[in-house]
Records
---
Amino acid sequence: MMRYKLVVDSCCDVTHELREKLPVEVVPLTMKLGDDSFVDNCKLNLQDFLAKMKAYKGQVRSACPSPGDYAEAYQGADNIFVVTLSSNLSGSYNSAELGKRLMDGDSTNEVHVFDSKSASAGQLLIALKISEFIEQKLENKEIIKNIEAFINGMKTFFVLDNLDNLTKNGRMNKIVGKVASVLGIRPILGADGEGNIAFFSQARGADAAIKKLAATIGEHCSNTCEKIMVITHCNNLKQANKLKELVSAAYSFKEIFIAPTGGLSSMYANEGGIIVAF
């Protein structure tokens, strides 16, 4: 019997409950506030990290897992499917591929690395789809083909209260971030299909932004009946539930998951951030 394993980097916001259900191993990234490093694993005190990040005036940074970290995670299964942060936002994908090469000749394990072209909710959604295909006992080639097609059709959107860390780290246009901050505008941002961050629309105020996000979902998804939606949030369960209510009333998603963001996702989403993928 084939043994399967899912390997994800820690920007994939897998809940403790899902970790018990899925054959998943999380490889942590590291967040850096000056000389202080925080490993994004189950030992991270997220509230302490967020408080220190809020007080820190410099540029926050992150470091992806090493190829050796990935190679170690690939042990213990016959077939390994890997889901990483968008390769345009992090070196995690390249590191995962290098980890695969470290195993060449030393292992019969089959490893396939997926570039999520997304983050957080998008990565979790991909992991759930892989698990679904494994349960259906699809062949490896079928799983890979189906997941690559799924990634190309997946949509990721997000609304953040604070864009500072995205702009400081060059993840989005500094002018957009500055204008949004000064005018109190909350832009609806998302993946452009290639793993970069793009601007889609805007709203003024948190409630209006959630309503606009719900409307944006409808504009980009005509058939929701067979789709799963994942919503992740940084200390903002109230707005995550509000979005779920709006989406449930307007559309017919098969299932909607809500999960809190981990360390890396929280670093960029900041307090109050909402991310959705479908």
---
Amino acid sequence: MYFDFASLPEYVPYFLPAAWMTLEITVLGILLGFVLGLVTAFMRISDKRMFNLPAHTYIYMIRGTPLLLQLLFIYFGMRSLVGLSALPAAVLALGIHNGAYIAEIFRGAIASISAGQMEAARSIGMSSSRAMVRIILPQAFKRAIPALGNQFIIALKDSSLASTITINELLLKSQQLASSNFMMMEMLSIAGMFYLIYTGAFTLLFHSIERKLDTSRA
């Protein structure tokens, strides 16, 4: 079988809108997941059952079912209820999915901080909430950076599932072009190249953040 990899550069421009769509879904999904994860982490560590139980249930359900199922459930369910289009559905599904994992990342990071620091903050007159914001969270965030970086890269690759609800991201674009030029391996290679570029860029970004914050001393 002959592969015409020499012709790949002429097809790269066709992928640029899809590459932007992949980046848009990833960034919006991870931002939503970050907010959901932080809120859920606080609920998860709460002593009050009215907060802890919903957070635990959310994490259990999301981590116990595949993202593709969640994506289809949200897309078809929300479309029939409120007419939600494909792009918001993909962002919502990716955000909800990542939120459960980010919540556990933050919960673990917060739990790793010595309880004595909270006690010391309280002893000098700080409220629990202020101590959490001023003392605990900055340290927990530093410790969470490596895991958050990994989750960001996972979210990038998970965005390819948006092709199942007709969002024209990298994977769907490669399939569309391959159906007309019969160059499936070549088109998939271009999509893979964009994913590798993104992954490399995100890896460098988070390594830079780690060095700046000196997470090894968190």
---
Amino acid sequence: MKTILVVDDEKMILRLAADALESFGEGFEIKPALNGREAVQILNSSKVDLVLTDLKMPVMDGYELLSYLSKNFRNIPTIVMTGFGSPEIAKRLKQKGVIHYIEKPFEFDDLNPKQARLD
């Protein structure tokens, strides 16, 4: 079973993302985190196969989480969700090793891990 860590300070987004990912079939365990600090705790205590994170969050934002991932969990693919997409953001995320980013609001199909890539 693959474990997907979903990080967002909005509980509704966590629920929507979990529903979307679970709709793609069996074999995904979804671990939610409300901020980067909670995500780090999960990363350090569980095996995670994919991270789906927001950028703007309290306590520890997505950029800090991406930096932590690049230093400590370089092999975990990461997808970013943001309401503030731009070519500059895409370039910055690609430099941090992000495989794909999607803009909020998103459709369920945008979260299909089988289609994840950075455009």
---
Amino acid sequence: MTGILLQMQATDSLLRVADSINRLANTPPAAQSISLFDLLKKGGVLMIPLGILSLIAIFFFIERFIAIRRAGRIENNFMNMIRDHIMNGNVTAARTLARNTDNPAARMIEKGIQRIGKPIDNIERSMENVGKLEIYKLEKNMIILSMVAAVAPMFGFLGTIAGMIQTFFNISVTSDITLGTIAGGIYVKMITSATGLIIGIFAYMGYSYLNAQIDKVINKMEAAAAEFIDILQEPTR
């Protein structure tokens, strides 16, 4: 009787152990998480030039944005005041107004006022030359944003290629070709590609946006120049 009881207790213990093992086997693995900073650190040494490129893009975008926005500020009554001064024969006041107004269109108008009395073609040519210089100033440093947009993805791909070479070299040395080893090495090295693409995309978007703003400033300059020529021709009509 005692032997039967011991056998039953042993069987019950085995059943409990088997049930515990079954629960552990069916329990899903805990989700692993990693911070963004730790993820970026896994990208390797090429994350440093990528970080520098991102800072360069941010700096020059802000610098050009401020300069272009300032250049596009033209008072609505600026050309009306120029018209009134010229029509009243007060050329000096018109030139003073243009000189004291800090934007590309005003500098074009000032050059035109200096050439009053000469043929219209000469005036237009002088204003056009000033306009070209002003456009050059607006586009200064824009090439840097364009270069960042092109170079950042290349740095990212370079980091990925270098990482892949290192991963397969380690596999050849250790003969460890498990899926976990290969996938772990690949996903870490893809971080540089993703980072480079993100930087390149934002740099290109900033470059395109600033170009659109420059076009708006150019349109304002052309409109002001055309209106000034009309003012000069108005008394002869």
